[in-house]
Design goal:
The complex is a heterodimer of chains A (about 375) and B (about 290). Chain A has helices at about 40-50, 90-100, 105-120, 135-150, 165-185, 195-200, 220-225, 230-235, 265-275; strands at about 5-15, 15-25, 30-35, 55-60, 65, 75-80, 155-160, 185-190, 205-210, 210-215, 240-250, 250-255, 260-265, 280-285, 290-295, 300-310, 315-320, 325-330, 340-345, 350-355. Chain A is α+β, with helices and mostly antiparallel strands and about 375 residues long. Chain A folds into two domains: about 5-225, 3-Layer(aba) Sandwich (Rossmann fold); about 240-355, OB fold (Dihydrolipoamide Acetyltransferase, E2P). In chain A, the strands form four sheets. Chain A has a six-stranded mixed sheet with strand order 6-7-8-3-9-10, with helices on both faces. In chain A, helix 2 packs across helix 3 (about 105-120) and helix 3 (about 105-120) packs across helix 4. Helix content of chain B is about 75%, strand content about 0%. With about 290 residues, chain B is mostly helical. The chains are: A alpha+beta (about 375), B mainly alpha (about 290).
């Protein structure tokens, strides 16, 4: 196992920046998720680490070696592909043996390593089958097996779960997590599903438009998103964002809505607004931090119910506030009907304030 | 309940009617393609006299293999000539096929996997030759072969047949390579293979059906070709089968049974090739490689 360091990594196609000045360090034994929407550059970044694409700039090192000019085969990595990429004309045994055979290991060692990898992943009974005779979950396991049989320095995984059905995905999620725990493996894992990133990874790197926006533990990313993109990307349902107008006066700061109401801010939040260069402020709040009242209470703002989605444990209400859709979770016992006027109370400790022009989170001066 | 089941029955009848119409059509097409071959075999078993009879003998009164033994007898003059033509055809077709595959495999792979300037232009330019009827090139190619000193050599035919076969071979094979997921090669390269090893160990086995289909295609093209062989070669010792067989016509009276026997023998390699290799056509080897 080894650490992976990316420094100012660039990948350009003409004047398109697929990966734009990305730097981060994956510590030894860490599970890092690269997450972002389609086309954000996460898979390109992974392919750069693998050496499948030439870099346009920057440095990548694995362990204590700079690998910029090394072939994929010399980087001591293993990769699990979204479509598994099992060799269709080889049996499961031959698939697992291939990386060892290419490294010219003696036959008895190959046999022994393949058997122990198969045992670990519970695919011993499948060794003589061809990939097409396996179910999706079994193919996934074989792909994992082919990656771990060689005991590489780093595991690269490119959306390995997205071809599985929902139930199997949850099961394999915990298996990969267990795999990471058992092997103490260094893993770089690409996914577009923020839930996978949050549930599995030690750290997540949120990317958009080729840029690395935030690199931190899932808890920190969840608690302190750096901008509105990260705020709305991480968490389910997404954080609600309400564009408002910031005002500061001697009495303190408040946010004003063109609908006529205003929300007074706490001292801390007021200082953030005061430090802002613009009065366009975006108020962000997660569903669980909002309180819904049927009648007005001090510090609450009015909204109109759009839809109500009971899920059993909890009911999600979508409420229009100042033209923005806001997700709120309420007890299933609370009965709401569409177009009902309700009042929303914000938790000043847990709201997020963003600069409406730059989308960045506001900092207190 | 009754109306539903009645409707189901009538629907099934309608389906059956179409199915039978389809079968009838297939039988007619089958007869149309098979009848000449059957007639060829029957005639080849007749004596020269029986073949000329009218009304024709539907079944030879005294079937004989004499036409075949005559053609395949290395000691007789006819047998010597025929076997010589056969050998010439086999040689020309085999070399054409080998060269076509050797050139088409890397070309098709490059067109499929690499992005280089002029890629699309070149790819369509490859087809330019096939947009004109073959005869158009007869005279230009003859002049060219003459300038190269290749007239009356098998090299002239092999070169010419390559210009027919290669474009389609490249197109056919590119389709195969396009269907092999690039992740398989990437996986192989990460698993310790060089790019070339990934091609040899992973891509080549998967494109075997394509290579075999291409080979058969170019072999048959070369095996059956007549006009160029007739134009480029004048020495009897070099003639290929299609031209050589024509000599059966040129005597005072056409030897129909001999001609038919020769034609039948000529079709044997092609049929055998198909029978032996057909499973590769249908074998969907990439199935199970990736999840779609």
């Amino acid at each position: 196992m080894a650490e992976v360091v990316l420094q100012h990594v660039m990948k350009t196609y003409g004047n398109i920046y697929a990966v734009n000045d990305v730097s981060f360090t994956v510590n030894d034994g860490e599970f890092v998720a690269l997450v972002g929407p389609s086309g954000c550059g996460k898979t390109t970044t992974l392919n750069l680490i693998a050496g499948l694409l030439p870099m346009s700039g920057g440095d990548i090192s694995i362990g204590d070696r700079v690998v910029n000019d090394l072939d994929p085969k010399d980087r001591d990595i293993a990769m699990v592909f979204q479509n598994y990429a099992l060799y269709p004309n080889k049996t499961v045994f031959q698939n697992l043996a291939f990386p060892l055979k290419m490294r010219k290991l003696p036959k008895d060692q190959i046999e022994q390593k393949v058997q122990s990898a198969a045992k670990l992943l519970d695919i011993t009974h499948l060794l003589e089958r061809k990939p097409r005779e396996l179910s999706g979950g079994q193919q996934q396991r074989v792909a994992l097996g082919r990656a771990l049989v060689r005991d590489p320095a780093v595991f690269l995984m490119d959306e390995p779960l997205s071809n599985l059905d929902a139930k199997l995905r949850v099961q394999m999620r915990s298996e990969i997590k267990r795999f990471h725990h058992n092997l103490n493996a260094t893993i770089v894992y690409v996914t577009h599903d923020q839930l996978e990133a949050v549930t599995m990874a030690n750290k997540m790197a949120v990317m958009n438009g080729g840029l690395l926006l935030q690199y931190d533990t899932p808890a920190n990313v969840f608690a302190n998103p750096v901008n509105t993109f990260v705020a709305s990307f991480v968490g389910s349902p997404a954080m609600s964002l309400i564009p408002l107008e910031g005002h500061t006066s001697a009495d303190g700061a408040s946010l004003h809505s063109p609908e006529g109401w205003s929300l007074p801010l706490s001292l801390m939040n007021g200082r953030k607004v005061a430090a802002s260069t613009t009065n366009q402020i975006v108020l962000g709040a997660r569903h669980s931090t909002l309180k819904l009242h049927k009648s007005q209470v001090p510090g609450s703002v009015p909204g109109k119910v759009y839809t109500v989605e009971p899920t059993g444990d909890v009911t999600f209400a979508q409420v229009f506030i100042n033209g923005a859709v806001v997700n709120i979770s309420v007890e299933p016992s609370v009965l709401l009907s569409p177009d009902e006027i309700v009042f929303i109370e914000f938790d000043q400790e847990r709201i997020h304030l963003f600069d409406g022009a730059t989308t960045m989170a506001l900092q207190a001066a | 309940m009754t109306t539903i089941s009645e409707r189901a029955v009538s629907r099934r009848n309608r389906v059956d009617w179409w199915r039978w119409a389809g079968r009838l059509f297939l039988v007619l097409v089958l007869g149309f393609t098979v009848m000449p071959m059957i007639w060829m075999i029957i005639t080849s078993l007749k004596t020269g006299f029986a073949a000329m009879q009218y009304p024709p003998q539907w079944w030879p009164a005294s079937p004989t293999l004499e036409n075949y033994t005559r053609l395949l007898d290395p000691s007789g003059r006819i047998g010597q000539d025929f076997l010589h033509y056969f050998w010439n055809s086999l040689w020309v077709s085999t070399i054409t096929t080998v060269l076509a595959v050797v050139v088409a495999v890397p070309a098709a792979y490059a067109f499929s996997r690499f992005r280089f300037p002029g890629r699309n232009f070149l790819f369509f330019a490859v087809l330019l030759r096939n947009m004109f009827p073959a005869v158009v090139f007869l005279v230009p190619l003859f002049i060219l072969m003459k300038a190269l000193g290749l007239v009356n050599t098998h090299g002239s035919l092999i070169l010419t047949y390559l210009t027919f076969g290669l474009p389609l071979a490249i197109w056919l094979l590119k389709g195969f390579y396009d269907n092999i997921p690039i992740q398989l090669e990437q996986a192989a390269r990460i698993d310790g293979a060089t790019r070339f090893q990934a091609f040899i160990f992973v891509v080549m086995p998967l494109s075997t059906p394509g290579i075999i289909a291409t080979s058969i295609y170019s072999f048959i093209g070369a095996w059956n070709e007549y006009i160029y062989a007739y134009t480029f070669l004048t020495k009897q010792s070099q003639m290929t089968l299609p031209v050589g067989i024509q000599r059966f016509f040129s005597e005072n009276a056409t030897d129909w049974p001999g001609l038919m026997a020769a034609t039948f023998i000529m079709s044997v390699p092609v049929v055998v090739l198909f029978l032996v290799l057909q499973k590769y056509f249908v074998q969907a080897l990439t199935e199970g490689a990736v999840k779609h």
